[in-house]
Every structure is written in C-alpha cells, then in structure tokens.
Design goal:
alpha+beta, PH-domain like, 2 domains, 8 helices, Glutaredoxin, 8-stranded mixed sheet
C-alpha cells in the first residue's frame, strides 16, 4: 500500500508510501495494513499517548511533539495522503465554530510524510509555505518526516486512507479520537472530551495502554545499518495490551501478547553475532540488533515469522537491543501477564 500527503495547494503527486527498497544480503519482510476504508468512528482512548515526534511548522521552526502542543487541549488532525485535505478542512471548520467557547483549545494539522522524502523537505515545505498565506495556518501545520509505522502503531491507526482527529491534552494523553471527516457523531465525542472538566487534571490512571521503545544505536555500526534501511526513525518496538510489534527497517516481527512465555535482559554480545537482522542457526531465534552492549530476549510459546517472506521460517524467540531494556521488560511482563 502506498500513502502520501500534501496540502491541496501542492498540485504534483510528489509523495509515496515508504516501502521495501533495500539491496541487502537478506530478504526483507513487511506486513501490510488492511486496505479497507473504515467508517468514521469515535471512541475514548484512555491511557494512550501521542508519540514523540520531531516536526517543523511552515515558517521553518522546529517543534517537538507532543510537548509543543500549546493548548490545554489540542485538536490534532493526522493525515497521510494528498486527497485527505478536504477532510482536514472539515475539522478546521469545526474548530472555528467552537474555539470561542473553548479558549484553551488549539488546533494543529500534522501531515505525516515518509522518511524517504526527507531530502525534499525544503522544496515540499517551501511550496506549502508560499501557498498558505495566513500566518496562523502556517504555524499550526506541522510536517513530520518519519517512518509511517512510528505514528500508526502508537496511535492504533489501522487505515491511512483517511484522517484521524484526536483530542490531546497538555500532558500528551489522547483523550478521544475519531476517523474520517467531521461528522455529528465524531464531533460530539471529541467535544465530550473537552467538556469533561476533570479530564486534564485527573491522575494518569495507570501506565500507557500503548508504549513505544527505541533501539540503542552504536555509532560504529550506524552507517552499515543505514545502508539496509535501519535508522532510529525506522526502528522501534510498540507494545499494546494485545500485541508486540517490532519494526526494524523493512523487517517486521509481530505477535500477540498471549504467545509470550518469558522475557529477560541479555548481553553483552559479540558484534558479528548481534548487529543487523539475524536468524540463529542454533535455535532459530531472531535478532534485531543495533549494539553489542545489551538487549532483551523475548521467548514465545508459538514461533512467529519475521526475517524472511517465507512464513514457514519461524522463530521461537526475539532478541532486541533497546535503549531502555529495563522499562521494556517491566512493560512486557505487565502487558502479557508474565
């Protein structure tokens, strides 16, 4: 599936979905999203947090999300494709109708653009800025160039053919979300999150329902890993109450939480056995490695695919060299009930 985004003022179809395009010594594998077009739905998403992303507004200023969302509550419209601009505009219009009644509410458009287009950012963002004359509109449009999965995994977005509108509070917590253009049902659900007087000051109510973990990259091996598409922006692990999804450039390993048998910290390793995507000839275990210092090992009750497109090749364990192994171990045990 290919996805892309631009404001409607950009006429050329310049964006495509980031795909598998590495020429490397091992076959790549990526699990695709469902291609269905979901209906606009809305639901509360307590304990979900907006992912940490580096963005830039159309005046060229860097923004760190969600910290730089300036409102007590924030309407954040996430889009992926050029033709979604009309849906984005419907939410901007809705915001304009309620802004006076909610002075602490701010509005942001967040186009999510695949990493492969990063080098063209000056041209893409520059073209947008020239066409968007209103300073307020330029400041509220925050372009994000990253691995698409980094956003969809964190926000439980399963369809990039439509926009996702969220209410994000000042702590980065997602209070409600809906998909599709502004409708009476979706608007009512988001409005309910705004009118809950105690929502923003309430206790977090436990750990996040969705957590993301970054890999620890050894500087010596970053150039080699980059050649096969593995960079900090394309490598992360996402935990939800139901699933573990490890993404490593073009490789993906996904399993349900009820298949987890155990998890522990491991390392150090020999670098030639740890760096890159690797399958063990001894126990068929899968390694997504970015450093030889330390990592975690997840043992599975049922082997899963992940290294090659041949689904008969399955792995009973997964080693991940994460930047925060202690937190990952604790979170996985909690999510999987270990």
């Amino acid at each position: 599936m290919r996805v892309g985004f631009s404001l409607k003022v950009i006429r050329s179809p310049w964006l495509r979905r980031n795909g598998v395009c590495t020429a490397c010594w091992c076959l790549g594998y990526r699990r695709g999203w469902s291609e269905r077009m979901s209906e606009a739905t809305a639901e509360p998403v307590a304990a979900m947090r907006f992912p940490r992303l580096e963005a830039r507004d159309l005046e060229g200023r860097g923004r760190s999300l969600p910290d730089d969302f300036s409102g007590t509550h924030n309407l954040v419209v996430v889009a992926f494709r050029r033709e979604q601009q009309s849906m984005v505009d419907s939410w901007i219009a809705w915001f304009d109708t309620i802004a006076a009644q909610h002075p602490g509410l701010r509005c942001y458009e967040v186009p999510v653009i695949a990493t492969r287009w990063s080098l063209a950012r000056p041209v893409i963002d520059g073209g947008m800025a020239q066409a968007v004359r209103a300073q307020e509109a330029r400041r509220r449009t925050l372009t994000v160039y990253t691995d698409i999965w980094r956003v969809t995994d964190a926000l439980a977005i399963d369809d990039t053919h439509t926009v996702t509108a969220l209410i994000v509070d000042r702590r980065g917590r997602v209070r409600a979300h809906t998909t599709g253009p502004a409708t009476e049902l979706g608007s009512a659900r988001l409005l309910a999150a705004l009118t809950d007087d105690g929502a923003d000051d309430a206790a977090p109510g436990g750990p996040p329902a969705v957590e993301q973990f970054s890999f620890a990259f050894d500087a010596r091996f970053r150039p080699i890993l980059a050649l096969i598409g593995v960079r900090p922006g394309t490598a992360q692990v996402t935990l939800t109450p139901g699933r573990l999804v490890a993404r490593f450039g073009p490789w993906t390993c996904e399993t349900s939480m009820d298949k987890g048998q155990g998890v522990c910290q491991t390392g150090p390793y020999r670098w030639f056995k740890a760096i890159g995507p690797r399958g063990s000839m001894v126990d068929r275990g899968l390694t997504f490695g970015t450093t030889a210092t330390a990592g975690v090992c997840v043992l599975l009750r049922e082997p899963v695919p992940g290294l090659a497109p041949i689904r008969s090749l399955r792995h009973p364990g997964l080693t991940l060299t994460l930047a925060d192994p202690e937190r990952f171990v604790s979170s996985l045990r909690r999510h999987a009930g270990l």
